[in-house]
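Readers of this paper often ask what the protein records in our data store actually look like. Below, we set out a record of this kind in full and without editing:
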Amino acid sequence: MARIIGNLRRRGKKIVFTNGCFDLLHVGHVRYLTQARRQGDVLVVGLNSDRSVRALKGESRPLTPQAERAELLAALEAVDYVTVFDEETPLALIKILAPDVLVKGGDWKPGEIVGAKDVRRRGGKVVVASKVEGRSTRGIIAEVARRFREEVQI
């Protein structure tokens, strides 16, 4: 990935990076990734591995294996590249790829964004994308569980 990004950068492309678990892909994710892509020429998505999702979200997650999550993300028009990382944060990946723009979702405060200092230090930009209210993986899981419990009790 570093070699690909280096080649793109030499051709004058503006590299955008974002990351996440993307466990159950939903409209909030799609809108977020579309906003991220508008920040530059190439969007690279760092995808948490199954192991790192479990470390962050608990043993019941992810619901979707990393290979399938990566395939779904790669199929989106806004996404140019997907790379899986195994750490709990993408800091090492951000340092290697040195994106021009780092994008995170609206539930993040600028001071909490991993890698923001590194990107700014190199003259890059950090963008907090707007959040789609009422759409989250956790919310979808809760709603499915609630509806299933209602159905089973009938």
